Amino acid sequence: MCGIVGIVSSEPVNQQIYDSLLLLQHRGQDSTGIATLDGDFFHMVKAKGQVREAYRTRDMRSLLGNVGLGHVRYATRGSAAAEEEAQPFYVGAPYGIILVHNGNLTNTRELTADLYNVDRRHLNTHSDTELLLNVLANELQAGITGLSLDKKQVFDAVSRVHERVEGSYAAIALIAGHGLLAFRDPYGIRPLVLGKRSGANGQDEWVVASESLVLESGGYEIVRDVEPGEAILISPDGWMYSQQCAKNPRLVPCAFEYIYLARPDSVLDGISVYDARLRLGDVLAEEIAEQLEGVEIDVVMPIPDSARPSAMQVAQKLGIEYREGFFKNRYVGRTFIMPGQAVRKKSVRQKLNAMSTEFKGKNVLIVDDSIVRGTTSREIVEMARSAGAKSVIFASAAPPVVSPHVYGINMPSRAELIAHGREPSEIAEALGADHLIYLSVEGMNRAIMAGQDRVTELEQSCFTGEYIAGSVDAEYLAWVEATQES
Ligand SMILES: O=P(O)(O)OC[C@H]1O[C@H](OP(=O)(O)OP(=O)(O)O)[C@H](O)[C@@H]1O
Ligand SMILES: NC(=O)CC[C@H](N)C(=O)O
Ligand SMILES: [Mg+2]
Fold first, then answer.
1. Which one, of 255, 252, 228, 253, lies nearest residue 242 by Cα?
2. N or C: which end of the chain has fewer CB atoms below 10 A?
3. Ligand 1, atom nearest to 376 Cα
4. What is the pLDDT of residues 34-85, one digit of tens each?
5. Is 2 a catalytic residue?
């Protein structure tokens, strides 16, 4: 999951894109980039690290134009450290295209071979985003008949992209002279939402972004989510056109967005992330009551930040006091999306501190949103014990993560997943907890999708091992494991 934003405005967009990326920072911390379209020219600035450190005043001044896009990266293919893999990516033909992408393609080997051998295209990195851009460029090129490009040709090109590319992709592109193109994969795995406001000169101003909070904070009304398979084309003077470009679109958004990735104050595909997290807590409480009958619990405690809404509900439903015992250093980023296990492990200790008065002599139920590698939970159980807890019960508001995530979250290898091939009792032992409880898969589905009928199924392969998009089989997973840094 990266964060993406694209804006078509009646005034310069540089500051708006910057502000939007700051709001999307929780989706990626490895690198960031902004590109603008200024008449016939693109301007682009990319840098490693987080938004606040990445852009200088002179960079911002160079980003001229009323149309632009931006990206924060959390690498899922290639390397987090590679500067040349920071997004956006650019190709010179046709017209000049710049693209940002949230997601992960699963047929990269086939695409790489075809782009070299058939389309005669050069690829300069290991990024799957560069592949996506080149497929789009190739399909646009193939459909051009005259000098200019019309919307049908653009939508036909996106249809052919859907046919060639497998995996997940929410993408935004700028096409020089033509405006902004946004599209979402046929399963809508990664989020993308469309917003509109009226500019000073009466022109419609548009934004497409990974999360709705970007729209709200910029004073845009939420028009709707981009449909799975749909493409949206917005001209530089604010005309918007859309078309369904996939043969069999089916909305299957990623469950992990609701559990951990997205900000709680966003609404994705009509489901409020905060409400989903509250409901995950409600259902978790029911399952705790059933499975841990008789186990003594004095206090319920969240692991800040993402677990707070769920933990609050667990406490309320179980009628047990809610306390905060772990305090977070706000200057340390999200540890799960940091590259490399050594950094992640060190950061948990830097990030969280246990206040002993809240633990001494108590039976503590610790609630986290998820346990993936166990990096956080292992350290936390140890911290709770050293702070004097009598017993430590650990609850996860998501089911066990048993399989790699190949659609935009960097969990490439089975071996690193603490729940892979282990029973909950063995995991409890590995974590050092007295009891461990996970939300059930059925409970997760019920909680996230309650009270609405737009989303009827979730992408949940990391909990079930069943992959909906592309041919993800044992051979593919072994290849990902062998080639992707985690
Ligand atoms: O089992 P693990 O591999 O440790 O991963 C899971 C943990 O990582 C995330 O927290 P993170 O610090 O990334 O962000 P947060 O502050 O938003 O909770 C998540 O909320 C869990 O606490
Ligand atoms: N998390 C993402 O969406 C990553 C996008 C792309 N796969 C990359 O690695 O840059
Ligand atoms: Mg956390």
1. 228
2. C
3. 4
4. 999 998 899 999 999 999 999 999 999 999 999 999 999 998 888 888 888 9
5. yes
Is residue 349 within 8 A of residue 238, CB to CB? The reply is: no
Give 386-418 as a DSSP string: HTT-SEEEEEESS----S-B-SSS-B--GGG-T
Name the pTM for this structure.
0.95
Q: Which atom of ligand 1 is nearest to the CA of 347?
A: 12
Residue 303: which pLDDT band, with cuts at 50, 70 and 90? very high
pLDDT of residue 265: 97
Catalytic residue among 2, 245, 254, 462: 2
Ligand 1 pocket, mutate which of 331, 336, 351 (most atoms under 8 A from CB): 336
Within 6 A (CB) of ligand 2 lie 1-2, 73-78, 87, 101-104, 127-129, 408
What would the pLDDT profile of 131-173 be if each residue is shown by its tens digit? Answer: 999 999 999 999 988 878 899 999 999 999 999 999 999 999 9
68 to 4, 64, 127, 195, 414: CA distances (angstroms)? 11, 9, 22, 15, 38
Task: Specify the fold of 275-455.
Answer: Rossmann fold (3.40.50)
ipTM attached to this prediction = 0.96
Domain ranges of the chain: 3-251, 275-455
Q: 3-251: CATH homologous superfamily?
A: Aminohydrolase, N-terminal nucleophile (Ntn) domain (3.60.20.10)
- Written as six digits, the tokens of 79 are 């390397």
Whole-angstrom Cα distance, residue 53 to residue 36?
A: 20
